[in-house]
Specification:
This protein is α/β, with parallel strands linked by helices. It has 13 helices and eight strands. Strands 1, 2, 3, 4, 5, 6, 7 and 8 form an eight-stranded mixed sheet that branches. Helix 10 links the parallel strand 4 and strand 5. Helix 2 packs across helix 3 and helix 3 packs antiparallel against helix 11.
Length: about 260
């Protein structure tokens, strides 16, 4: 078990700030203060977080239901918030297999919640950093859970905007996709300032707290899908991506996060 020193509860943490935006209880005073500072310059961060979460539910439901994908690799998992990805997909297809990967101690302390699987399926948790794709792809937890000769949905939800350009985010995504077979998918979301320049101030607030953050434009987000077949409606503000009756009437500026799904030919 990780100690409070390991968790550095006096230092703001992006996963705990996100938990605060979602109305969760797994956050500390430093996280709440940092989140309120962020909300002071970009009040719609709450809307962004909640619509991002709703996109995850819709895109994974689409993959498990309409497409029939049965294997999922979720990197940058974050603090478990129900419904978790495996709850969504195993609710549709109980035999589905899910591997979660994250490198944050706070997430590791909650990993047991991510390891509750349907009897027919499997879930595994991998302590690994997105910036080390080789570690993810060679981990026993992944190899023992997923069959990489069959399609896998790679889920990178609200994680790539924490990877700066000098860490080669496009190369990281490419290396992960290169290991997956034809018929696999990439689902991702990414913060943007295309609709509201205040999102740049939001990213700056994160950097002031020691959390790398970058808002990318639509062209930069679409580049993650180079070589893939974009699923309609392509790269969109997440509330426009296959909305259902639960999606509220929001402006793009309120949402300020892109989402998309691509298929590997």
């Amino acid at each position: 078990m990780w100690s409070t020193t390991d968790l550095k509860i006096d230092v703001p943490h992006s996963a705990r700030m996100y938990d605060y935006y979602l109305g969760g209880k797994d956050n500390f005073p430093a996280d709440r203060q940092a989140a309120e500072d962020a909300l002071a310059v970009f009040p719609n961060a709450l809307v962004m977080a909640r619509q991002n979460r709703a996109f995850m539910v819709r895109v994974t439901s689409y993959l498990a239901g309409e497409v029939g994908v049965r294997q999922f690799l979720d990197v940058g998992t974050g603090i478990p918030t129900s419904p978790n990805l495996h709850e969504v997909v195993q609710g549709i297809a109980p035999e589905s297999r899910v591997v979660y990967a994250d490198n944050d101690p706070i997430v590791l302390t909650h990993a047991r919640a991510l390891l509750t699987s349907s009897p027919q399926g499997r879930t595994a948790y991998l302590d690994a950093d997105l910036r080390d794709p080789a570690r993810i792809l060679t981990a026993p937890e992944l190899r023992n859970t997923l069959d990489l000769t069959e399609p896998v949905a790679l889920s990178l939800i609200a994680i790539l905007h924490f990877v700066p350009d000098d860490a080669d985010p496009y190369g990281i995504v490419r290396r992960l996709l290169d290991a997956l077979p034809s018929g696999s998918f990439l689902a991702l979301t990414h913060a943007t300032a295309d609709f509201d320049p205040a999102a740049l101030e939001l990213a700056e607030k994160y950097r002031e707290q020691g959390i790398s953050a970058v808002a990318r434009n639509r062209v930069e987000v679409a580049r993650f899908f180079d070589g893939l077949e974009l699923v309609d409606p392509g790269v969109q503000a997440v509330h426009h991506w296959r909305p259902d009756s639960t999606v509220p009437d929001l402006t793009d500026a309120q949402v300020s996060i892109y989402g998309a799904l691509g298929r590997k030919p």
